[in-house]
Amino acid sequence: MKTETENNASELNNYSFCLFRLPEEGGRVLWEITNSCNYSCNYCIFSAERGRIPGELTTEEAFEVLEGLKSRGFTHIKFTGGEPFIRRDMLDILRRSRDLEFIVDISTNASRITGDMASELNEIGLNMVHVSVDGHNRELHERARGQNTYLPTIRGLKYLVDSDAYVRIGTVIFKGNEKYLEEMVQSGASLGADEIIFSYMEPVGRSKDDYSLISNKPIEEVKDALEQLAQKYQDKIKVNYSFTEKPKQCESGICPAVNKFLYIDNLGRISPCTWVVEKYPQYRTEKTVKTASFEEVMDSEPIKSYLSYIEHNKIRGCPVSRR
Ligand code: SF4
Predict the structure, then answer these.
(1) For 79, 249, 300, 305, which has the most beta carbons within 10 A of its beta carbon?
(2) Quick one: which H or E segment has residue 149?
(3) For the CA of 257, the nearest atom of ligand 1
C-alpha cells in the first residue's frame, strides 16, 4: 500500500487545536485555484459556479504566487476548487509546484480525469489525490452531489488507482449516508483507494443555514464506529476522520495562520484561514498579484491586522472553531 508522506506537527507540538494538519517544518497552503465546477453539490463550501469565472489568476500569476510561497518557506500545497481540472493549465501549475519541491495534494471530483491524465499526474508525483465520494452507491452519492455525478467520478477514480496514485476518498457524512459507514468503507476498499476520510457536512457555503441534510449523529458515536472499522479494514484501506470540534483548551498555542497556514481564493486574495475569512472577511486581502507583488499582498493591512488582533487580544487556541 502506498504511503502518503506526512509529518504531522499538529499532534507533535502546540497546534492540536488547529483544524488543519500542519507540517513540522514549513507550512501548508489551501489554494482554491478556481471556483468553476462542472458539478453543483448541494453543500459546496465554496459555492462553486459553472462556466468561466472572470478575474481568476492566469498561469503566470499562479506561478508568481508559487514563487512567493516558496520564498516565505511554505512547503505543502493542497489545490482545491471548484473543480481544479476545469483549468486547462492545471497540469502546468502542478508541474511547476513540484519543480519548486512543494508537497502537493489535490482535491477533485475526478470527473475530468482520463487514463492519460492519471499517468501524467503520476509522473508529476503528487502526494495525494483526494476524490469526493459521498455514498457506496449512485443514489446516495447523488443525493448530496446532484444528478449524473457518480459514474464520472468513479471512472476517474479508477484511472487514478490504476495509475498508482495515492488515492484518498473524502466522504461527507450527512443525514442520508450516516448509517452506511461500513458499506462506504467496503466500497472504498473495493475501488482500490488507499484511504477514506470522513467529515461532517457543515451548514456553510451553498447550504449556509440549511440544516435539512445535516447529520445529528453524535460525533463520539461516529468516531467509535470509525475506529472499529479502521481496525477491521486495516489490511484493505486506511480509515480516517477529520471533524471540526470544539478546540481543546490550549493555554499556549497561537493560531498558526499566516506563518504556517494560508488560504488563497480563486481570485488570488489571501486570507489567514478558510474559517477566519468566513467569520471575519475583513482579514482577507483585496490586493492580489494582479495588481501588486506577492510580498506586498502578504504585507497588506488585512493580514497585518489579523496578526495584531491575535497578539493584542492574547488569543490562545483556535479563534473560530465550531460544534
Ligand atoms: S483559525 Fe487558526 S487555529 Fe483555527 S483553524 Fe484556522 S488556522 Fe487553525
Answers:
(1) 79
(2) none
(3) 7
What's the pTM?
0.92
Q: Look at residues 273, 220, 227 and name the one whose alpha carbon lies nearest to residue 245.
A: 220
C-alpha cell at position 91? 497540469
Q: What residue's CA is closest to ligand 1, atom 2?
A: 255
DSSP-assigned letters across all residues of 221-243? HHHHHHHHHHHHTTTT-EEEE--
Task: Tell which residue, 134, 72, 131, 123, has the closest CA to residue 99.
Answer: 123
> For 131-174, how does the pLDDT look when each residue is reduced to its tens digit (9 = 90+)?
999 999 999 999 999 999 999 999 999 999 999 999 999 999 99
What is the spatial distance between Cα 29 and Cα 169, in angstroms, rounded to a whole number?
Answer: 20
CA of 191 to the centre of ligand 1 (A): 34
Q: Is the CB of 277 inside a 6 Å radius of any atom of ligand 1?
A: no
What does DSSP say about strands 261-264 and 76-80: parallel, antiparallel, or unpaired?
A: unpaired
What's the rounded Cα separation, in Å, for the pair 83 and 283? 25
Q: Is the CB of 255 under 6 A from ligand 1?
A: yes
CATH code for the part of the protein at 27-245: 3.20.20.70
Q: Domain coordinates of the chain in residue numbers?
A: 27-245
Distance between start and end Cα atoms, the chain: 34
